[in-house]
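Researcher: Please translate sequence to structure tokens.
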Amino acid sequence: MIEPHAPAPPGAPPPWAGPARLPVRQGTGRFLVLACVFVCAACGLVYELELVALASYLIGDSVTQASVVLSVMVFAMGIGSLAAKRLRGLAAAAFGALEALLALVGGCSAMALYAVFAWTGDWGGPWASGPRWLLVAFSLAIGLLIGAEVPLLMELIQRIRRQDAGGAVADLFAADYVGALVGGLAFPFLLLPQLGQLTGALLTGAVNAVAGGTLVLGLFRRDLTRRARWLLLGANLAVLGVLATAAVLVDDFERAAREAVYGKDVRVAVQSGVQEVVLTGGTGGRPLDLFLDGRLRVSGRDEDRYHEALVHPAMNGPHARVLVLGGGDGLAAREVLRYPSVQRVDVVELDPTVVDLARSDPALSRLNGHVYGDARVHVIVADAFRGLRTGLPEPSYDVVVADLPDPGITASTKLYSQEFYGLVRRVLAPDGRLVVHAGPLAARPRVFWTVEATMRAAGLHTTPYRLAGRASDVPSGPDRTARASRSPDDWGFVLASPHTRPPLALGPRVPGARLTPGALREAGRAAAATRIGGLPASTLVHPRY
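Model: Translation complete:
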């Protein structure tokens, strides 16, 4: 693709290593190459972070996803760098083609991954499943292309003005690392909150294509044949056309994908500063469902059974002051307020958007009994760990209800640590009770019993119990399989107290409660039959989930 040169005499440097014929001065040419290095590094890091963020959102377990994406990508970068050695004679043309391909793959990666997630169902299951390998494939492809950039850019900058290898590497890496810094900061503070993952990735791809195409077609155009210039221009225009078309259609795509994930009755879809909050149903006789980051958090079909099982056993004893950790939907607080002797309920919730919806959405506020209109309920917007550590309005609480996301989600791991339960123990009254939702016992028995072992390590005396969950309640219909895949077979809970093992019994009988003493005793026996002993506690520095 470069113009032919006369054969070089023996021992002479290859003809493509000679000075480039530039339309600008050497100093300006070097600056433009380094500027392109800066832009490409920023785009490359955005692609990496976008894959990590999207995989963590769709699959969960952010530590595993980050490890897989970054390790595969760094490995691929090494392979790409080695492969690019063979392209040094075509450095300008190869770099232009590589950037166009990287812009297309990286820019469309988020949309492709989300499409597979939406239309193939949940990504649960082993890593051998197809959608998970698509994540690895994108990490591998993007890593190969990013790794091939550096040798080609090194060749181009040396052709402008040859210098010692150490000086050239220092200049190139300085621009590369500064660009990575800018990309790393732009992703969480600009692209993600302002544009979202899909549009942000598409825009990054467009910037990548423009930077690479402009450098080669503007600065190194004399290294290309006329045919190569037109091919490269056409390829870049085609990539930009694809990215622009995708950007125009991204809203329609998101709506269609959201319907595929949540069904056709999505009423509210909000991206808060913490998570995506989606409400479906709640009108026309359809049960309300609340999803947080794609995970079913509340199902109107059986949330009353879940919240009764969570709250009522802990109310067996003094319960004037109650602390709810999580539970911004107000449903745990609703069960607490069914006891007339409750004087104060403090709800510690990380996401104010959930609380706002629980107050203002007609279906959700009706489901929670309009608890946020009760003067006894007070909201504290904070992370549960930070809230316990920095201090709460009351010096101690009779009951603490931990209505938190499952411990299998990495972001929640610290809320199931020995340190966390130590903080809870400090705010419990001497005869107070703590109840914890510890995830589905049948599906993840080791996780459940690790939670119980961690609570005991924090000095709490525990009583575990287990109730049948949602999966058996999912009605027949076209979306039954998808809903059942999100619905646990059971709920696992642990009741605990600082000084004595709390009895598994109900508090004062409240009108309308369906949970019976007999069912609760059976729930205790069901949990005890699955006990796994000898598990170590989970700590902040050594999480076990």
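Researcher: Any highlights?
Model: The chain is about 55% helix and 15% strand.
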